[in-house]
Amino acid sequence: MAANAQALTATFKSQVLSGVHALGTTVVRGATTPDTVKAALYLVNQSIGVGTTAYSATGEVSGAGYTAGGVTVTNATAPSVSGTTGIWTPSANIAYSSVTLSSAFDTVLLYNSTQSNASIASYTFGSQTVIAGTLTLTMPGNTSSTALIQLA
Amino acid sequence: MITTIHGFMDENDLDRRQGVDEDDSAKVSWVEYRLPGDDQIVHRSAHVELKGEGMDILPGAFA
């Protein structure tokens, strides 16, 4: 038998991502199905980051082929545990096809459109433009060290 | 054939440039096309390989 240890359990980390636990007042959920996650692109220097609370159209890219609010993220893989880390990664790449985004952008915001557009995470990359083309965001492997969201 | 600001064009008729930029957050591969002798970009696409975002969540201690 091993010694006891102080820890947040690995299953808790995964279940937090699935909304199993509500240690404070929570929302009334309409269904047990996953919420809808969307991905919106932001222009450079818009202060998107840890302090962002919800999706906003302010500072969002605009251009031919792009719809305000971004695109829906494919979410067919439930949060899980890898080792002792709770993980989640969209189950498909995110693509903005046939768009023209002439002003430089460098951030994608994942947000929960089911829960009042509450923010989830922001990811930055080198400043880009797209001209009559496609922007593809490739998902990393869904492991404890690479998953798009890792609660270690 | 690729999409351009002038409609579909044969990419063999265009000047192609491509590159890769990588930092701690992501690796970006991009490709762009211009008309020969013209600096205007008629097509540009980018492929971003996102890197995951992790955070440690730790138990506190009793006072």
Radius of gyration of chain A: 17 Å
Q: Encode the helix/strand succession of chain B as letters.
A: EEEEEE
Mean pLDDT of chain B: 91
Query: Total number of β-strand segments of chain A?
Result: 7
What distance lies between the first and last C-alpha atoms of chain A, to the nearest angstrom?
Answer: 24 Å
Estimate the helix proportion of chain B, in percent. under 10%
Radius of gyration of chain B: 21 Å
Largest interface: A-B, 35 and 31 residues
Strand adjacency order, main sheet of chain A: 2-1-5-6
Helix tally of chain A? 1
Task: Indicate the low-confidence ranges of chain A by residue numbers.
Answer: none
Which bin fits the share of residues in helices of chain A? Answer: under 10%
Assembly state (oligomeric): heterodimer
SSE topology string of chain A? HEEEEEEE
Number of domains of chain B: 1
> Strand count, sense and closure of the main sheet of chain B?
3 strands, antiparallel
How large is the share of residues in beta strands of chain A? 35-45%
Percentage of residues in DSSP E strands of chain B: over 45%
Say how many strands of chain B there are: 6
Summarize the structure.
The complex is a heterodimer of chains A (152) and B (63). Chain A is mostly beta strands.
Show the helix and strand layout:
The complex is a heterodimer of chains A (152) and B (63).
Chain A: H1 10-17, E1 37-43, E2 71-72, E3 80-82, E4 85-88, E5 94-112, E6 118-138, E7 149-151
Antiparallel strand pairs in A: 1-2, 1-5, 3-4, 4-7, 5-6
Chain B: E1 2-4, E2 7-9, E3 15-22, E4 26-34, E5 41-50, E6 53-55
Q: What labels would you give this structure?
A:
heterodimer; A: 152 residues; mainly beta; 4-stranded antiparallel beta sheet; 3-stranded antiparallel beta sheet; 1 helix; 5% helix; elongated; B: 63 residues; two-stranded antiparallel ribbon; 6 strands; 57% strand; rod-shaped
